[in-house]
Amino acid sequence: MNLSNGRIWPYAIGASIIFIFGACVATIIITNKMPVEKSDTYMMGYHEADDKANEIIEAQIAFNKKYKIECIANNLKQQNGIIKYRVSDINSNPVNNAKINIVVTRPNNHEHDQELSNPKIEDGIYTFDSIALAGEGRWDVMAKVSVDDVQRFYNIKTDTRGMEVVEY
Fold it and tell me: pTM for this structure?
């Protein structure tokens, strides 16, 4: 069989098609093994957050007109991490009737999520029980704060290796 007179092209095209098909199958297999987590910036899926984006922003504006919240103690360590929030009204009077739900999670990985509830409340300072984290590194502390008929999300990024806290 002499391939020099132009009969090599059908074999080359066939081999290319088989190679491309194999690469597509390999891509699908590899991507199915990789963990893909849904976004949960507002403690809900991103589709729901997209649908409610305007309501979330309006609720945050309404909350900020009446109340202030701040993370006052972020001793987030791998062992015995303490999380504290101060909730006050616009005149800096303590608010003791807020409901705070917290989720401590790794960014884009929900394997080690911890939900915190039932804080100790004293003069508007909400102190949660100490927690133990699965590892060192970056963690997201997501809080949903509700007072009376208004609510807002207060999310911070922190790292067990340093004391920098950033709201996002």
Answer: 0.70
How far is 53 from 51, CA to CA, in rounded Å?
6
- HSE, CB side, 13 Å, CA atoms: give it for residue 100: 29
Phi and psi angles of residue 146, each rounded to the nearest 5 degrees, phi first: -125, 130
For residue 109, give both structure tokens: 């990985």
Secondary structure of residue 9 in the 3-state scheme: helix
Q: Based on the number of CB atoms within 10 Å of its own CB, is 143 exposed (0-12), middle (13-18) or buried (19 or more)?
A: buried
**pLDDT tens digit string along 125-162?**
998 888 888 888 888 888 999 998 899 998 888 877 77
Phi/psi at 55 (5° precision) = -65, -40
State the chain's maximal CA–CA distance in angstroms.
93
Closest CA to 142 of 151, 131, 153: 153
Q: Which residue has the tokens 């007179």?
A: 5
Sign for the pseudo-dihedral over CA of 63, 126, 101, 143:
positive
